[in-house]
Amino acid sequence: MMEGSLSKWTNVMKGWQYRWFVLDENAGLLSYYTSKEKMTRGVRRGCVRLRAAVIGIDDEDDSTFTITVDHKTFHFQARDGSERERWVRALEDTILRHGRRERWSRCVPAPAHRHGDLERRISEADAYLQIMIELVAKMTTRVSELAEPQDKNKGQVILDHSNAMLDNIKHSIVLLQIAKNTVNPVNGVYQGPTNPSQSHIKEELSSRVELGSECRELSTPSLPITPLEHLDAPRQAMTLLVPDTSYSSSEGEDDFYDADDELVDVGTQGPSASRTCGAEGASEQEPASPAAVDLPRTRDGEIDYDALYEDDSDSDLGSMENHGSVVTHLLSQVKIGMDLTKVVLPTFILERRSLLEMYADSFAHPDQFIKIVDQPTPRERMVQVIRWYLSSYHAGRKSQVAKKPYNPILGEVFRCHWDQEGESVENNTCKQEVGDGPVPWCSPDQLSFVAEQVSHHPPISAFYAEHVNKRIQFDAWVWTKSKFLGLSIGVHNIGRGLVTLLDLGEEYSLTFPNGYGRSILTVPWIELGGAVVIECVQTGHKANVEFLTKPFYGGKKHRVTCEIYAGTDKKPYYTAQGEWNTRMEGRWTESGRSEVLFDVSSMRPRRKRVAPISRQGGNESRRVWRHVTAGLRAADTDAATSAKRRLEQTQRDAAKKRVDTGDRWITQLFSPKGEEGWEYNMPLSKRSDAAHAACKSADETR
């Protein structure tokens, strides 16, 4: 017997709940109870049969694991990595002990093709084993001969991984032997490896692979060899009745006790208010309603929606932890590799802003963007483009948890602008307005931004930014294609951006990295990955940027490397590396001079200025999503979901009406460009040309 406390995932509303677990290796059963005291009284809440079960772990999280059996998946969470390792090892040993027992009556022989397939696989694995042993021996010799410490360390890492692979092959051969002898047993009992060349495998693994009584010849005098047909008979050590299938009780008692008498700390994934959780199926503490949560209010007592959007606090993190894993919801709808475009995600994973507003955060450091114009040489301008581009990503993350912004509705628009460093609208009562462009009421010394959802299928967003006095503009379009990858979600960003310096006649085209939502089994986090190219055709300068995903073994998160080339040069004149969410360092190759490309700890994102919701149009982002945002901020999932569904239904009704009437959707601010691109209708370049033409015409008239 092995017993102890674990947390068990219940559902998206109840989250993780503490339970007292008992593993009966003889019975092949994992039972759980609401408390240790209930266990002593035999009041079992549920159990998991371990015969033919599969253990799953997430390499990005060291405390959770799953058991899949009987067409069900159970999610568990230990206090830490060492405790998870202890449970997983015990569970795997039990699963192996009660390994798959396909029994064949002595009068009905096993299918010949199955026995032959296993024989062939064993021979193939043994051949690979011999090759691997030889290669590892040669590698060991080679590593021992390396003189440089750095090379020797790298070689040792490869050698360690190779030895681990060698052990796995040995382990596989033993399991194949078990499978072969289970299908075609000798006298009803597994006899062990028959190939003399494989006897060393059994010896090496005997310390960590314990074979069950049905898979080996028992040598204990008090226990006779067990014939195969009697393996289902109750064993003397079994104290629990093994049910026909795994189950989780949905009927709770009136009282509930934590599994431990003391509060158990399971890290950030645990329930934030475990003492108030009810039993599975019983009524629990309901989510707070808007009336129960302090939402900002106006003097008239109405909800202050503008203040809601300006609140950058991560107050809904606890809600995310209570809901736990997103994967429970996803698994009911998707398969690995499936496109997530049409999958309805649970409301609690939404971030409190539209995707269009998230794109605006590319300019959260407006000074870095404007400084591109001020650099004296093409090389320094390219480096400044890189500095602005890479430093913009950290500002886009508002939450410690990877959450999804609202999918913009067709025709949705978002406008904002930023003050330049040292400038404040409050101190400038005589502000001159540009009168046109993306934000007509901002001044020529402010950076303005506008975005529009120009297509629904595929979901394409187009956005534009400009600074009138510096005569710099940015035009871009992007659409995302999401896929479910099992333990993560991949988001492929398809699109292009273009930075234009009007007075210098330079254009810098750029692409976007892919995004990944990792560890969706627990608390998700964002990772960027893939290659990005930034180049200026006019100067011939090109930058290759690589967003590196975290390797399976070791390594850091959020790594980025960059190399900038001039013309046809094969050697970069500038290199940079670091993490996009903390700090990157650059180096000028020719001079050897190093510098800090950016350090986010010293870069405070500037707050964007947005018109009050009362002055916004009906299609502007913050007005469109205000009720969903209020529900999320108030931790009222039902209210947020209801508001979101109303928006979605309105969109579906409008789309159906257009189909019935034959009307075509017409965009407001952006137009198609080429086969798949989009551009802003009246960028600064066109308005400047029009103004210049008007002045010229006036001069000619005079």
Q: What does this molecule look like?
A:
With 702 residues, the chain is an alpha+beta fold. Among the domains are: 2-104, Pleckstrin-homology domain (PH domain)/Phosphotyrosine-binding domain (PTB) (PH-domain like), CATH 2.30.29.30; 322-422 and 435-623 and 639-680, Porin, CATH 2.40.160. Helix content is 28%, strand content 24%. The chain is built from 15 helices and 25 strands. The chain has helices at 36-40, 81-97, 112-145, 149-183, 199-205, 305-310, 317-323, 327-331, 355-360, 366-374, 378-391, 621-624, 626-633, 637-661, 684-701, and strands at residues 2-9, 16-24, 29-33, 46-49, 54-57, 64-69, 72-77, 247-248, 350-354, 404-406, 413-418, 447-455, 460-467, 472-484, 489-501, 506-510, 514-518, 525-536, 541-548, 559-566, 574-579, 583-588, 594-599, 670-673, 677-680. Strands 11, 12, 13, 14, 15, 16, 17, 18, 19, 20, 21, 22 and 23 form a 13-stranded antiparallel beta sheet that branches. It has an 8-stranded antiparallel beta sheet with strand order 5-6-7-1-2-3-4-8. Helix 3 (112-145) runs antiparallel to helix 4 (149-183) and helix 13 (626-633) packs antiparallel against helix 14 (637-661). The longest helix has 35 residues, at 149-183. The radius of gyration is 32 Å and the shape is globular. The N and C termini lie far apart (101 Å).
